């Protein structure tokens, strides 16, 4: 992949698949599988956030001088999602399928809105602003 947008969008899709698998397992009452799949989803999301917050966002902010711009909003949305992750873990531990599935709907809406902003705006801005740095950044994030 030659663009930040390609790699990060692909990463979104991989996280979405893990999320859907966990939701399906919990919906079917398969708690062990649901816990395992949610754990994989959570690890993937934390890794995704780390890539953004420790590598891509700082590079973009430094290049553009916009430390209170779009990356500030994305970081704030990450914190919102992390709160829901914690609530979902509690619902899993209690084997509360209604609670988990309700939180899952909330998280799905948050992720869809968040991903659209990143994919349609921020990642494209990164492709433009960080064109010279992209090969090194992609190597750094394991693309």
What quaternary form is this?
single chain
CATH class: Mainly Alpha
Terminal residue distance: 7 Å
User: What is the CA-based Rg, rounded?
Assistant: 16 Å
According to CATH, what is the topology? Four Helix Bundle (Hemerythrin (Met), subunit A)
Order of helices and strands: HHHHH
What is the average of the pLDDT values?
96
General description of the model:
The protein has 143 residues and is mainly alpha-helical. It has a single domain, classed as Four Helix Bundle (Hemerythrin (Met), subunit A) (Up-down Bundle), CATH 1.20.120. It has five helices and no strands. It starts with a helix and ends with a helix.
Name a few traits of the molecule.
143 residues, mainly alpha, Four Helix Bundle (Hemerythrin (Met), subunit A), 0% strand, elongated
Topology:
Elements: H1 4-27, H2 31-64, H3 70-93, H4 97-129, H5 134-140
Helix pairs in contact: 1-2, 1-4, 2-3, 3-4
Question: In a few lines, what is going on in this structure?
Answer:
85% of the residues lie in helices and 0% in strands. It is mainly α and 143 residues long. The mean pLDDT is 96.
């Amino acid at each position: 992949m030659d663009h930040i947008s390609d790699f990060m969008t692909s990463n979104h899709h991989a996280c979405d698949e893990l999320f859907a698998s966990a939701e399906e397992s919990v919906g079917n009452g398969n708690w062990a599988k649901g816990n395992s799949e949610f754990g994989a989803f959570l690890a993937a999301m934390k890794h995704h956030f780390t890539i953004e917050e420790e590598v891509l966002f700082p590079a973009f902010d430094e290049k553009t001088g916009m430390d209170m711009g779009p990356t500030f909003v994305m970081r704030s949305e990450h914190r919102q999602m992390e709160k829901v992750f914690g609530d979902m873990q509690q619902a899993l531990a209690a084997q509360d399928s209604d609670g988990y599935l309700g939180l899952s709907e909330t998280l799905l809406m948050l992720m869809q809105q968040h991903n659209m902003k990143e994919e349609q705006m921020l990642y494209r801005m990164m492709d433009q602003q960080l064109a010279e740095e992209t090969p090194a950044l992609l190597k750094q994030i394991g693309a």
